[in-house]
Amino acid sequence: MDLLRFVAPLVVASGLLAGTGCGTPPPVSRMPTARAATDRVHATQDCGLGVHATAKIDQFNKRDGRMRGDLLMFAVWPDRLRLDIVSPFGVTLWTLASDGKKFSLNDLRARRFSFGPASECNIARIATVPMPGHVLVSLLRGEVPVLKHDEADESIEWSGKGYYVVTIKGNNGSVEKVHVAPHPDDFGRPWNEQRLRVLDVVVEQQGITLYHAELADHKPAAMSVPQIDPAMIDPPIPTSGPQCNAELPRRIHVEVPGQDQDVLFRYEDVKWNPPLPDGVFSQNIPGGVEVVRITCDK
Predict the structure, then answer these.
(1) H or E stretch at 39
(2) Does any domain span residue 268?
(3) Cis check: omega of the bond before 78, within 30 degrees of 0
(4) Cβ-contact 164, 185 below 8 angstroms
(5) Cβ atoms of 156 and 34 closer than 8 Å
(6) Which residues are 102's β-sheet partners?
(7) Is 8 within a domain?
(8) For residue 110, what is the enclosing H or E element?
(9) What is the mean pLDDT of each run of 10 residues along the chain (298 residues)?
(10) d(Cα 242, Cα 39) in Å, to the nearest integer?
(11) How many structural domains are present in the chain?
(12) CATH number of 269's domain
C-alpha cells in the first residue's frame, strides 16, 4: 500500500508531462473555446478605454529610412490617435492626429502638412505597416484585434511553450494566429477568472503576412487623474474611463516580415483612461507650410 501511494502520483505526473510534450502544462482549468479565450482577453482589458504614454519609438521603412525619437501618445478605443515625436532637445518634429475619420500629419522637418481620410495607408505613415486605426489602437492597449469570422472558423490549442494558440479564419480569406498566455498567478483559477496576456499576433492573406505584432513585458499600469487648470479658470477635465489598473505590454513591435517595414514602441510611462482635452485628435494647419491632401494612391 505504501508503494502504491508513492508510485501513483508519479504515474499521473508523467502522464501530464507526456501529454504536453514535456513543456509547460496547461492551466488546471483550460479555455474551452477560442471565443472564450478572446472574450477573456477583452474582459481583462475591458476597464481600459485608452492610454496616454511617453515612449521611445524606432521605425523603419524603405521610403523614409529609420527614425528614432521620444513619443508622446494618446490611443483611445476604437480608433482615435495622437502621436507626437519629439527630438532629444524637446522640439516636436512630427505630429499625427486621427479621430477615426480624418487624419492629419504635420512634419516640421519637411515643413509639410498632410491631411486625408483615416485610411490604412495613412496610418502606416506612423506604424509603417498598413493597418486600420482600430487595429493599431487595440495593440497599443494590449488587446487582440479579431478578424470578422464565423464561429466554426476558429480553434484553440495549448502550446507546451506556455500559451494558447488561437487560430481564426477570416471571412475574406485571411488567417489570424494569436498567442495568449494566462497570468502566472492564474494557472490555478477557473478559466472564466483567468487574466490573459496577448503575446503575439500574425495575420496572413493568401500566404502573405500582412503584419506580425509581438507584445512583451506586461506590467500593471496606473490610472490617470483629472486634468486641473493651474489658473483655476477652466473646469477640470475628467478621466475618459473607469478606474483601471490592468496590465499593459511595455514593448510592442509591429512588422511586415521580408519587406523592411517595422515599428517598435517602448513605453516609459503609461496610464489608463487619460483626460482628453478638446481638439487632441485634430490639428490646425500652421502657417508657412506646404499643404497636401493624401490618399492611398498618393
Answers:
(1) helix 34-45
(2) yes
(3) yes
(4) no
(5) yes
(6) 117
(7) no
(8) none
(9) 39 41 88 97 97 92 76 96 89 91 90 89 70 92 92 95 97 94 98 98 92 97 96 94 98 86 94 97 94 79
(10) 19
(11) 1
(12) 2.50.20.10
